[in-house]
Amino acid sequence: MPAAPLIEDAAVDAARWRARAERAEAQLTEAQERISELSEQVAMLGRMLFGKRSEKNHPTPTPDPSGEGADPGGPGADDQPDRPRRGQRRGSTGHGRRDYSHLETREQIHDLPEAERTCPCCGTAFEAYRTEDAEQVDWQVTITRIVHRRCRYRRRCTCPGPRAVIGPVPPRPVAKGRFTAAFLARLLFEKYVLGRPLHQIARALAADGLDVAEGTLCGALKSVHELLAPLEQAIAACNAVAAHLHADETSWRVFEQVEGKEGHRWWLWVFVAADTVVFRMDPTRSAAVLTGHLGIERTDAALPEGRRLLLSADFYTAYQALARVEGVDPLWCWAHIRRYFIRAGDAHPQPRYWRDLWVGRIAALYTAHRALAAAEPGSPAHHQATAAFEAALAAIDTARREQAAAPGLHPAAKKVLATLDREWDGLARHRDVPDIDLDNNAAERALRTPVVGRKNYYGAHATWSAELAARVWTITGTAERNGREPLAYLTGYLQACAAAGSRAPAGETLERFFVWLHTPGSHNHDLNEEIPPGPAP
C-alpha cells in the first residue's frame, strides 16, 4: 500500500483525536467551573443552616502557610480571652425592677382571721401598724360587645319640622361593620406585625370567648384595605424624594393566578429613608419597580434637576441599572462583598487563609468607620478616625490591585476580586459620606418582620391581601422608625376613619398622622403635639 494514503489517514486520525481531546478538555473545564459554583452554593447554604447567626462573629482563623503573623485587625482580633461577657456585669448595681405603677391597679387585702389577731393568753387584740406590700402583673383579655342604642323622640306639638328625631349614628371605621377601630387595628397588628396566621388569631379569640370564623376576619382585613391607602401614598411620596435610601427585596408567594404571570413567586421591595419606610409588592424583580417608586420613566432618564440620590444596596442588576440614572450615586454594601470572600473560603480549602486576611481588612474598615461615626467632627479623635478609615480603604485598594495581577490565584478568589474590582467605585464612595452605614443592613432588618410572616403563613392567597400586607408594613414601619407604637398608631388612624364617616381622613386630619413631620429634629415639630386618639369606638 502506498505510503501517502497511510500518512493522510494518520493525519485525519490525529486531527480527529485532537478535536476529541479539545472537546474533552473544554467539558472538563466546564465541569470544574460547575463544581466550583455548586461547592460555593453548598457552603453558603450550609452556613445559613448551621453557621453562626451574626456577621459579627469571625470565621476560625486558619494557620498561616507562609509563617507570617496574622493580619492586623483580622479574624480573631476581637476574640481575646479577656473579652467582656454579654449581659449584666457581675457586681454591678443593676437597674432594679421596672416601675408598673402606670397600670390600672386593683388592691387585694390579705388579713388574718380574727382568732389569730388576739393574744392566746390574755385575749388582748393585736394592734395593726403597717402592711407588707408586694405586686403582681395580671394578663387578661376582655372582649366586649358594645350595644349602641340610638334614642328616638317624636314631636308632641303641631309645629312645622320633622315629626321624629334620633340620636347620631355611632362612628364606625367600616360602614355597617361589626368591629371597632381598636379591634381592626389589633387584627392588623397581630397578623402583619407579629406574624400570626389567621387560624391562630381565631383560636386565640375563641380562647377569650369570641368564636369567630377565619372568613369573617379575612373580610374585616379586606374592608380596611382602601382606608389605609391615603396614608400609605403620603408615606411613599415623602420616601421617594429622600436624599438617601436603603433598598432591598425578598421573595413572596401570591397564590392567585394573574394574567401574564407564570407561577406564584412575587417580590417584596423595601425602601428605607431616615424617617419613612415603604414596602412594594410586585410580580417582577425588575428595575421598573425602582424607577416607578422614584417617579422616573426609565433607567436611561435622569432625576429632576438639582436632585441627587444616594442609594445603599447590594450588587443586584436592578440596582446597577438604577445607578446609571443621572443623579443617582450608588453606595454598595460592604457586608455583601465580605460574604463573597467568606463563601469562596468556605467552598475551597486553598483560599481560606486568603479569605481570613480579606475579612480582617474589611473588619479594620468597619472599626475605623465606627470610630469616625462616634467622634465629634473637628475633634482630634475625628481626625484620627478619618486617617484610619482612609488607611483601611487604601489597604484594600492596594491588595485588590496586587492580587488581581498575581499569578496562581485560585479561580474562586479571582472571581471575588473581579466583583470587587467591578463594583469598587460604589464601595469606595463611602469615603465621601462617612456618616452613612457601610452596609445595607437597615433594609435587611426592615424585611425581618415580613420574613417572619412568610415563614408562618407562606404568603398571600389573593393580590389584595399581598398589597394590604405591604401597605400595613409601610405604615407600621414608618411609625416605628419615628418612635411611635404601631398598634396605637393604627388605632388612632382607624378611629379618625370612623370619625370621617367610614372614609379615610383628608386634609389636616390626615396630616396629623404624618409622623415624619412631628419627629424631633423636624422644622415644624411641637414637643407637646401628639396624634389625637380620635373618638371612642
SSE pattern, N- to C-terminal = HEEHHHHEEEHEHEHHHHHHHHHH
Residue runs with pLDDT of under 50 for 5 or more positions:
59-81, 522-537
- Identify the strand order in the major beta sheet: 5-4-3-6-7
Q: What's the number of helices?
A: 17
**Helix/sheet category:** alpha/beta
* Overall outline: extended
How large a portion of the residues is in β-strands, by DSSP E?
A: 5-15%
Largest sheet: 5 strands, mixed
Distance between the termini: 109 Å
Overall mean pLDDT stands at 86
Question: Radius of gyration, Cα only, in angstroms?
Answer: 33 Å
Number of strands: 7
The level of helicity is: 40-55%
Structure description:
The protein has 537 residues and is α/β, with parallel strands linked by helices. The protein has a domain at 349-438. It is built from 17 helices and 7 strands. The chain has helices at residues 3-50, 181-193, 198-207, 214-223, 229-240, 288-294, 317-323, 334-347, 352-374, 380-405, 411-422, 424-428, 441-446, 448-457, 463-481, 486-499, 507-511; strands spanning 152-154, 164-166, 244-253, 265-272, 277-282, 309-313, 328-332. Strand 6, helix 7 and strand 7 form a beta-alpha-beta unit. Helix 8 runs antiparallel to helix 11 (411-422), helix 9 runs antiparallel to helix 10 and helix 15 packs across helix 16.
Protein topology:
Blueprint: H1 3-50, E1 152-154, E2 164-166, H2 181-193, H3 198-207, H4 214-223, H5 229-240, E3 244-253, E4 265-272, E5 277-282, H6 288-294, E6 309-313, H7 317-323, E7 328-332, H8 334-347, H9 352-374, H10 380-405, H11 411-422, H12 424-428, H13 441-446, H14 448-457, H15 463-481, H16 486-499, H17 507-511
